[in-house]
Each structure stands twice: as C-alpha cells, then as structure tokens.
UniProtKB/TrEMBL annotation:
Source taxonomy: Eukaryota, Metazoa, Chordata, Craniata, Vertebrata
One Pfam assignment: WD40
Residue intervals passing through the bilayer: none
Extent of the signal sequence: none
Cellular-component GO terms for this entry: cytosol
Keyword Repeat among UniProt keywords: yes
Residue ranges that the Swiss-Prot or TrEMBL entry lists as coiled coil: none
Keywords from the UniProt entry: Repeat, WD repeat
Protein name from the UniProt record: Angio-associated, migratory cell protein
Organism from which the protein derives: Amphilophus citrinellus
Superkingdom, taxonomy of origin: Eukaryota
WD repeats: 78-120, 121-162, 216-243
Region listing for Disordered, in residue ranges: 43-75
InterPro entries xrefs: WD40/YVTN_repeat-like_dom_sf, WD40_repeat_dom_sf, WD40_rpt, WD_repeat_multifunction
Keyword Repeat: yes
C-alpha cells in the first residue's frame, strides 16, 4: 500500500479558507489553510475583545477557587508554636487570655484579642500536654509528658513553683483556691498548695489515673482509672469515699470527666464506648447511676 503523494507547496498564494477545496490527499492545501488561520489569529487582540467588557465576569480562576476553599473564618489564629498543639485553655476570670501547650516543649499565655504573647513558659523536658489557669486567672500551670510541672504568676511573668512526678496524665486546679491536682500513670493523684508546695497524695492500685475532676464544692475529686474504675476522693481526709467498678463501672480506661454546676451529677466517658451519668449525692451509702451506650465499638474521648 502506497503512501499518498504530498506535492510541494506552491509559492503562489492559496485560496482563502472559504474557497479552498479539501480534495482527498491534497496536503498542501490543508497546510496552507492552517497557516492562514494562524495569521488571522495573530491579528486578534483578545484583551480588547468585547469592546472592554469583561467576558470572564462571574467566572473564577483556579487560584481563586483554591483561595476560597482555604478561607479561614476564625476570629484569630495563634501560630507561635512550632509543633502540634496538645492543650488549650481560656482564663476563667475574664476570658481575655488563653494558654496553649505543644510539641515544642513550650506553653504560651497570649491575649485573645490580638494574639500577643504575654508569657512564654519554657524549661520543659517534653511536649506540654497540660496547661490551664487557676480559678482567679492569676496563675497558670503547665505540665509535660515527662511529669515536670511548673506554675507561673501571670502578672509578673515569673515561675513561682515546680515539681516533678511520674508520667503526667492530667492537671486540674481547685475551683476556689490556689491548689493544684495531678494524676500520673502509676495511679497516684497529687495535690499541692501553691506556692508553698504542701503536698498530699491519694494512692490507689497500680493503674493509670487517666482523668480527674474537682467537684464545685472543692471538697471532693472524682478520678477515673485505666481499669474502668471511678473513685471519689475526700480531699481533706485523703480517702476514697466511693468506688464504682465492675458491672457498675466502665469496661475500659476512663478518658474524660465532666460535672454540672453544683456537682450533683458527674458524667464519665471511656474507651468502652459508654458514657455514664452518676448522681454524686448519696443516701445510705448508695449512689444512683445511669448508663448510656453511645457506641459499643467506638471510644468516648470527650464529654
């Protein structure tokens, strides 16, 4: 089978695109038509097309669509940290300050109005996983994964107290006094007067104290453990006044605790997929308890 013959291009001008015959195999004519079309396009001023009207009005470029997809609607973004942020808290007195701790082994106290850093909490050995203000917002505590806890005076920006425990699980301020509580992975619960440092410990079986909450009356604290047990501690006497475990307790580690305004109800969440509502008031040494199955296959991580 022969290849169709393609004659040499003639030096004479070719017919216009309207007049040109497209005879089968006439490659010279087709090439000429393409050249003429290219010449015609070069004479078109696309910027002036439409007599100045914006023909693309209402259309978005790819860059504009990407910018819209990435739009940030937050009031303020604080980006001083150089790694992941693991904890945040607002000051309870005015809600004008925030503290955040992160993977960069630091905590920052900053203004929520403009993000200005007021205090940089340094000297930690590991990622800061706990950071929160005292009840009157005059103090801020920061704790890292290694168990190093520091307390800072916000007004003077000075460190006033530090202590080192085992691997830290949580920190919690007393609701009406400069008293700090902490839970560790060996099951210990610590309580200190700040800045004096007077200390009391609440011992339990060797099991991580995974979460803790001081009740609003300031006299009791509820602590959740890795084995699913919930203990209510008398902070003054130092003993467990109630223990919820077994069928009444969770079947997995406690992850979170919350209570209502007067402390009469406590809500606990666990990796067993359940949240339990506990009535903390007692009658004849018994508690009323209710259980809510959220999702048997999914852990409850926040309440």
């Amino acid at each position: 089978m022969q290849t169709p013959h393609c004659p040499q291009r003639d030096s004479n001008p070719q017919p216009s695109c309207c007049e040109a015959p497209l005879a089968g195999g006439d490659c010279g004519v087709l090439v000429s038509l393409v050249d003429d079309l290219a010449d015609d396009l070069e004479e078109v001023d696309f910027e002036d097309a439409g007599n100045g009207d914006d023909d693309n009005e209402g259309w978005e470029t790819e860059d504009e669509m990407e910018a819209e997809a990435e739009q940030d609607d937050s009031e303020l973004t604080f980006s001083k940290h150089t790694g992941s942020v693991f904890c945040v808290s607002l000051d309870p007195a005015t809600n004008s300050l925030a503290v955040s701790g992160g993977e960069d082994d630091k905590a920052y106290v900053w203004r929520v109005s403009d993000g200005e850093v007021l205090l940089e909490c340094t000297g930690h050995k590991d990622s800061v996983t706990c950071a929160m203000f005292s009840h009157d917002s005059s103090l801020v505590a920061s704790g890292d994964m290694s168990g190093l806890i520091k307390v800072w005076k916000v007004e003077t920006k000075e460190e006033i107290w530090s202590f080192e425990v085992g691997d830290l699980e949580w920190l919690e301020w007393h609701p009406c006094a400069p008293v700090l509580l902490a839970g560790t992975n060996d099951g210990s619960v610590w309580m200190w007067k700040i800045p004096a440092g007077d200390c009391k410990t609440f011992q339990s079986p060797a099991c991580q104290a995974t979460s803790g909450k001081v009740l609003p009356d300031g006299k009791r604290a509820v602590v959740g453990y890795e084995d699913g047990t919930v203990r209510m501690w008398d902070l003054k006497q130092g003993n467990a006044i109630h223990v919820i475990k077994g069928q009444d307790g969770h079947q997995g580690a406690l992850t979170c605790l919350a209570c209502n305004k007067d402390g009469s109800l406590m809500l606990s969440g666990s990796v067993d997929g359940c949240a339990k509502l506990i009535n903390t008031s007692t009658e004849a040494g018994r508690e009323r308890r209710r259980k809510y199955n959220l999702a048997a296959s999914n852990p409850c991580v926040s309440v």
